[in-house]
Structures are given as structure tokens and as C-alpha cells.
Design brief:
This protein has about 210 residues and is an all-alpha fold. It has eleven helices and no strands. Helix 6 packs parallel to helix 8. It is elongated.
């Protein structure tokens, strides 16, 4: 949802009053990636305008670049191009003051690696992200990354680990009222149950 996307990025940025407006707009741009009725080019133009309006604000520049990479990944379905953007970005973020943003970048790097079949690198990226989200107390991002890692574990056949991670993702989502992401975790648990031959559990999750 727009709300969840905005919260994920605003949690990772500073809250200086004079900069709140830019960050709200960036958070909403991030959330708009999920709106299938909107052309990705519109989001990218808005990001460019925000960057141009704040040339000396490094945090705005980093967030805008992160959202650009995410839009390329999820709206243009170009994991390779997105990964190029994300890898350049994470190098700049890794040792800077924006560790939470680095965590978000690592989570999306993990997804790009996973889509490209680079499962070992995806696993490492997801673990980095989860560690950062735990340290910075970012519950929505933490639960989302757990779900992503659970899906990856299922892809590579580590079904008990996948089940445990997805159960924890579901618990975390329910605890913060993230109903859409909780529903995704339930579906993923159903898929894992099928792979494990646990048909009764699968039927329960699919109800």
C-alpha cells in the first residue's frame, strides 16, 4: 500500500522538519511502484524533479536513486538493469551515514539476485538487510525481508528453513497490522507446505 511504502522509506531517513516534505514525496513515489495503472515513466520523471530541486541533499539523491532502481526492477521487469543501479548505489551507501538506506538497498539487491538465479548472493544480501532492519528497529522492512528470504529458501530446497522464516514473517506482519504482507506470507507458507507434502497445512493456508 502507499502507507506501507512511505513508512518503509521514512523510517530509513532523517526527520528534520525542513526536509519532511521531500521525504514524504519520496516515500509516496516508492509506494507508487505497486500501482499497475501508472506508467513507470511518470514515477521516474517525478523522481528526477525531486532530485533536481534538492541538488545538495545527499539523502534525497540516494533515496531517489534507490526508488529508480526499484521501479526498473518491479515495473520494467529488468532485473539486470536494476542490479547495475543498485550495486553502484550500495557501494556509496555502505560506509556512509545512511545505514538504514543501505539495508533497503541490500534487500532489493537480494531480490534482483534471486530473479537472476544468483541465489548465494541473494541469500547474503537478504541476511545483511535483515540484520540492519533488526538493529534499526524497522519492523515492516524486517518482516518483508524475512518473507523474501523464506521464498528464496524454498526456491533452493531448504524447506524447513523456509517454513520457519515465513512463519516468523507472518507473526511479525500480524503484530504490526501489515495485512497485505501477512497474506503474502500465508500464501508462501501454503506453497512450502505443498512442497513438503503437508497437504492439510497447505489447505489451511489456502482457505
Amino acid at each position: 500500500s502507499f502507507r506501507d511504502g512511505a513508512i518503509a522509506l521514512l523510517d530509513a531517513s532523517s526527520d528534520a522538519p525542513k526536509r519532511v516534505c521531500d521525504r514524504v514525496q519520496l516515500g509516496l513515489a516508492y509506494a507508487r511502484r505497486a500501482q499497475s495503472s501508472e506508467k513507470p515513466e511518470h514515477i521516474l520523471v517525478d523522481l528526477s524533479n525531486l532530485s533536481t530541486a534538492a541538488p545538495d541533499d545527499s539523502e534525497v539523491q540516494f533515496i531517489a536513486r534507490l526508488i529508480e532502481a526499484v521501479v526498473v526492477l518491479v515495473r520494467r521487469d529488468d532485473a539486470a538493469a536494476s542490479l547495475c543501479l543498485l550495486e553502484r548505489l550500495e557501494v556509496e551507501l555502505r560506509f556512509g551515514p545512511y545505514t538504514a538506506l543501505y539495508g533497503l538497498a541490500r534487500r532489493w539487491v537480494g531480490l534482483a539476485y534471486s530473479l537472476l538465479g544468483m541465489h548465494g548472493k541473494a541469500d547474503a544480501a537478504y541476511h545483511d538487510a535483515i540484520s540492519i532492519f533488526r538493529r534499526y528497529e524497522m519492523p515492516f522492512a524486517y518482516a518483508t525481508a524475512l518473507n523474501d528470504l523464506g521464498v528464496l529458501k524454498r526456491k533452493i530446497g531448504q524447506l524447513p528453513l523456509a517454513k520457519a522464516m515465513l512463519r516468523e514473517a507472518l507473526r511479525r506482519c500480524e503484530s504490526i497490522g501489515a495485512t497485505r504482507n501477512a497474506a503474502l506470507a500465508v500464501v508462501n507458507l501454503g506453497i512450502v507446505a505443498e512442497f513438503m507434502g503437508e497437504w492439510a497445512d497447505a489447505a489451511k493456508y489456502y482457505e
